[in-house]
Amino acid sequence: MTLTDAQQLGYINAQAADGRVNVELETDDGMVLNMGPQHPATHGTLRLVARLDGEQVTSADVMCGYMHRGYEKLCEVRSYPQVTTLVNRIDWLGSFANEVPFILAAEQLMEVEAPPRAQWIRTLLFELSRIANVSLFIGDLALQLGAQTPAFYAFRDREFVLNQIESVTGGRFHPNFDRIGGLKDDLPKGWIAETKAAMVRLRAFCDEMEGLVYGNEIFQSRTRGVGVIPAAIAQSYGLSGANLRGSGVDWDLRRDANVGLVYDQLDWKVWTHPDGDSYSRCWVRLQEVREATKIVDQICDGLPSGAIMAKVPRIIKVPAGEAYIATENPLGQMGYYVVSKGDTGPFRVKIRSASFNNISIAPWLLRGVYVPDIITILASLYFILGDIDR
Amino acid sequence: MAEDTATASAEAPEIVVDERREELRAVFVAHLGDAVLDSVIKPGDGLWIRVATDAWAEAGRVAQDKADCKYFDFLSAIDWLPSPYGRYEDSALDVPFPPPMPERSAAVPGYAGGESRLQVLASVAKTGTDLRVLLKVDVPDDDPRLATWIRTYAGAAWHERETHEMFGISFDGNADMRNLYLPSEFEGYPLRKEFPLLARVVKPWPGIIDVEPMPGDDEPSEGEGTEE
Amino acid sequence: MISLSVLGVELAYWQVTSLRVLGVLLAVVLPAGAFVYLFLFKMMSFMQSRLGPMEAGPFGSMQLLAEVGKFLQKEDIVPERADRRLFFIAPYIVLASTFLLFSVMPFGPDVYFTNLDTGIFLALGLSSVSVIGILIAGWASANKYSLIGGIRAAGQLIAYELPMVLAVVGVVIQAGTLNLQGIVAAQHQGEIFGFSGIGNPFLLTQFVAFGVFLVATQAELTQTPFDMPVAESEIVTGYMTEYSGLRFLLFFIGEFATAGAFAALAATLFLGGWALPFVSLDDNAMNFIGPLVLFAKILMVGFLIFWARFTFPRFREDQLQAFAWKYLIPIALINILVTMILKVAF
Q: Please, what sign has the CA dihedral across residues C272, C40, C232, C133?
C-alpha cells in the first residue's frame, strides 16, 4: 500500500499548494481580481481569475475542478444499473435528464427498446426536469443582476414541478428512476391532473417573469448587446442548448436527432434568437420552459397504455460495442460515449456534458467587458458546477 | 434519420445503406486518401472514422471545411488496456498491489480498429441534422503526443487539456496544458487503466451483484451469469 | 433649550443635553428599526410570497433585537493587512453623518435640535460626509472587492449629489427660504389656485423635483437598482466585505438610518413635513403630534424606496453615471428653470 500513501500525501500537498496560490495573485500589469471558488455569482465553486484595468477585464481565466468527482473513472467500476445513481449528480437541477442518454446508449448496445408507455413517461419526466431546471435559472438570473424577488418566485413555482417529480420517482432531486428497458414504476393515480394544474402555474410563472424580469428596462440594458457570441464561434466552441440557439443556430437534438424519446410525435417548436447576446440566451430559455409545459400537456393527454418495462435479463450484460447518444438536456447537449466489452459494467464512459463546453468560451467572451458584465455573461451562459466538473 | 432507416429496413432488412453517412465518409476518403485507415457506419446512428496519427490535424480541417461539420462536440481518449484491478468486485486482499499489468492483445476491439493502447476520440457534428462523425486516431504508446485541433475548433482547447491531465497525451501546438481539474502537482493520469481507484483499493465495494431469482422468473440464457 | 420649553419645566443644562442625546438616538434608531422590520423583514417577505420572521415575538417583532444581539456577539475580525485605525473609524464616520443629518430636521413647531436659516444646505452638505467614511472603509480593508466597492460608492454618491441638490433648489425657489421650518410653513400656508384648505405640499407643484429627489435618494442610499457599491453577486457587498460584528452593525444601522433621514428630508421638503392641514402651525399640540405625523410620512416615502429596492435589478456602473448626467441633471435643471419662470410670473 505504499503507493497509495504516497499518492494520498501528494494529493494533499498539491491541494495545499493550490490553496496558497488562491490567497494573492498580484502582478504589475493591472489588478488581478479573483472570483471564487467561494463567490456568490459562481453557483458553487467555479473560480474566475480576471485581470482588470479599472473596471474593464483585460483577460480572464476560468478554473474549475473544485467539484471534480471523477465520474468517468467511477463508471468503470460500476455495473450498468448503478451508473444512473452517479450520473444523477451531474446536473443536479434536472437530474432525470442525466440518466436518459446513458440508458438510451446502453439500450442501443443491447438492442433493447423500451415499450411505448415507458418512452412517453421518459419524455414527460425529461421535460419536467427541464422546467424545474430552467425555471430556477430565470430566478437566479434576476438574482445575479440584483433583483431579489424573482428568485423567490422561481423557488416557489419550481416546487410544483418538484412535487410532481417526487410523487412519481420518490426523489426530488435525484430520482434514479430510469432503467435499462423501461422505467422503475408507473405513474401514480391522479398524477396526470395534478401535473396539468402545475403546468398552468408554470405558464403563469413564465408570464410573470416576462413582465417582471425580461420586460424591465434595466434588465434589458444590462443584457442586450452584452456577451455577443457569433454563430460560427458558438459552433466551434461546441456551445449547446439555448446558448447555441440564442446565437441563431437552429439545432435541437430533440427535433433533429431524436433517439428513444417521443418528440417526433408531439407538436412543439424550437425557438431561436438571432442576436447572440445575453438577452437572447435568456429569452430562448424562457420560451423553452413554455414549450416544455406544452409538451408535458400533450404527453399527459396522449399517454399510451401498456407495459413500462421491456424484457431484459436480471443481470445486465451489455454486448461489446460502442455507442454515443446525446440528448438535448436542460443545459444543452449531454452525451455519453459508452464503450462496452461485453461485461456487466462499461469499459469506458465519456461524459460529454453541456456546461463544460458552454463555459469554455468564457475566457474568449470575457475579454474587454466590465466587471458587472462578468456576472451577466456567466449567468446567461448558465452552467451548473456538477455539469462542468463531473 | 428515422424515415430512411425505417423505409430501408422495411425493404431490405439485411443490408441497410445509410446514404447520407456514406456521402460523409466519401468526403473524408476523398480529402484524406490513405490516411483514412478504417471506418464503420452504423446505419441511422453514427459514423466512425479512424485516421492516421500524422493526419489528425488535417482530419480536423477536412471535417470543418469539407464535410461541413462545424460543430465541435467533444474530444477525449480511450485506454484499451484491460484494467489490472478488474472491476474491484473481489476483495482487495485477494489482489496483490500493485497487480501485474495484464497482457494486451495487439488489435483494439473497438469500432474502426486500431493498434495502439491509447486512442483519441473526437466528435464533430453538422448542426441542424443528426449527422455526426466520430474521429479516432491511434496515439503512439511510447510518446503519446498528437497535433492540436485548436486552430480548427477553438473549443478543443479545454478538451485537450482534460485529455492531457487524464490520459497523459500531449497536444503539440496547444500551449495551455495546465491541469483543469486536478491540483497542479498531481502525479499520474487518473483515467489510465493502471491508475488505481484508491477508494476501492482501500475499501472493497460491498455492492457485488447478488440477485436472487424471482419466483416464476425463468431467464434461460443470460440471467444465470454470476460475478466473474 | 427652545425645544424643551414645551414641557413647561426648566431643566439644568446637563439634563437638557442628555435629553437631546436621547432624542437624537430615538430619531435615528426609530425610523431605522421601523424600516428594517416593516419593510426589510415583513414587506419584502410578503412581496416574495413568504412569511418572514415569525418566531421571535408576535409576528417576529422581536427579531430586530435578536439580530442586534447576534451581531454584538460576533467576533470583531480585522484583516491582517488592514489599516487598523482607519478600519475602525470608518463606520463611525458614516454613522456620524447620519446623526448630524437629524440635527437640522424639524419635528414640530418647537421640537428641533437646531433651527438654522441654511438648514437644507447643511443637511445636503452633511449627507456627503458619509462618502468619506465609505471610501476609508473600502481602502482600509485591504481587500480588492472592498476597494472596488469604495471607489464605486465614491463615484456614485458624488454623481448623485448633484441631481439631489438641483431638485431641492426647485423647492427652495418656491418656498423662498433655506430654513426647513420655513419650508414647512410655506407648504402649510400656501394655496393651490386660491384654495388653501390643505396648504400646498410641494409634491403637487414640484413633482418633477420629487421624482428626481427620490431617484437620487435611492442612489445615495446605495439601494437597488443603484447598489453597485455593495453588489453582492459581483463584489460581495463591496466596502462591507471585511466588516463583521459590531462594526458591520454600525454600517447596517447607518444604511437604514440614512434611509430614514432622507425619507424625513423628502417628507419635509415635499409632503409638508410635520404639519397637518387645518391645524395651526403654532398649536402646542403639534409639538407632540408633529413627530408622529412626520414619522408616518417617513414611512410613506420609505415604502416607495423599498418597493423599488425589491423590484428592480441593478444598473451597471457606466449606465448609472450616464443616467445621472444625461437624464436626471438636465431634468432637474429644466425643473429649476420652469419654477423660476412661474415664480416670477405669478
A: positive
Task: Give chain C positions within 8 Å (CB) of A148.
Answer: 44, 48, 224, 310
Q: What is the DSSP letter of B91?
A: -
Q: Which of A250, A315, A333 is the closest to B128 by Cβ? A: A250
CB A283 within 8 A of CB A87: no
Note the pLDDT tens digit of each residue in A208-253: 888 888 888 888 888 888 888 888 888 888 898 889 998 988 888 8
Cell (9 digits) for A180: 435499462
Which residue ranges form the domains of chain B, and what is each CATH number?
16-86+93-199 (3.30.460.80)
| A38 contact B CB<8A | no
**Cβ contacts (< 8 Å) between C312 and chain A: which residues?**
146-147, 216, 218
pLDDT band of A280, cuts 50, 70, 90:
very high
How far apart, in whole angstroms, are the C-alpha atoms of residue C235 and residue C225? 15
Q: Which domains does chain A have, with CATH numbers?
A: 81-354 (1.10.645.10)
Asked if residue A131 lies in contact with residue A161, where contact means CB atoms within 8 angstroms, the answer is yes
Query: What is the per-residue pLDDT across C44-81, written as a single tens digit (0 to 9) for each?
Result: 888 888 888 888 878 878 888 888 888 888 888 888 77
Instruction: Note the Cα C33 to chain centre separation in Å.
Output: 13
Question: pLDDT tier at B47 (50, 70, 90 boundaries)?
Answer: confident
| Subunit contact A322:B188, Cβ cutoff 8 A | no
The C-alpha angle with vertex A110 and arms to A106 and A112, in degrees rounded to 5, equals 95
Does this model's pTM top 0.90? My answer is no
Structural domain for C62, as ranges: 2-345
Give the SS3 label for residue B122.
strand
Looking at this predicted complex, what is its ipTM? 0.82
DSSP codes of every residue in A99-147: HHHHHHHHHHHHT----HHHHHHHHHHHHHHHHHHHHHHHHHHHHHTT-
